[in-house]
From TrEMBL:
The keyword ATP-binding does not apply. InterPro entries: AIG2-like (IPR045038), AIG2-like_dom (IPR009288), GGCT-like (IPR013024), GGCT-like_sf (IPR036568). PANTHER family: AIG2-LIKE PROTEIN D (PTHR31544). GO terms for molecular function: transferase activity. Residues 5-114 form the Gamma-glutamylcyclotransferase AIG2-like domain. The lineage of its organism: Eukaryota, Fungi, Dikarya, Ascomycota, Taphrinomycotina. Belongs to the gamma-glutamylcyclotransferase family. Pfam families: GGACT (PF06094). This is Putative gamma-glutamylcyclotransferase. Keywords: Transferase.
Amino acid sequence: MTQSVFVYGTLMHPVILERVIASKQKVLEPAVLKDYFRFCVSQTDYPAVIAETGQQVEGILIKNLNNKELERLDLFEGDEYQRISVNILMKSKEIVKGHVYVWIAVSLNYMKHISQKGKDRLLREPWHLEEFSQQKLHAWIASPIEFAAIDGLDESSNCGSHFGRALKLDDASSCGSRSAP
């Protein structure tokens, strides 16, 4: 049985998505997640969503994911997120069932940085895929940290420890006001 997942951040970029799910053969459709808000996550390059009545998040629905691809997505998203079932509004106005990864981080302590409560890390600032693509994508692709949980997964059934995505305190995030091109 296949599943669908709504993505709203770095996974909307085809290079990131292909590396995470290890497949190019997916149906991708623009979609909207109603009653959620996309937040920037402090000191990172990726966003998070949490439920917020009256708001909406634009993203992409990935269709026909198999169990292995869902496992890869779960590992990539790590302990900061939980995959839940939601209703997703398609461009055609059809409502379909799918999954989304929502922010659940309560307390984090990656790389010995000072831990913060999860919601304290959410910034009500815009997150832009275009800005991420122009300013951060190259570093992400080259980084062993961003893909640590899934690298080697295909070579071995035991993927080892999951480190999740580390906080990035040494550079600016993709959050906030847009930079000039």
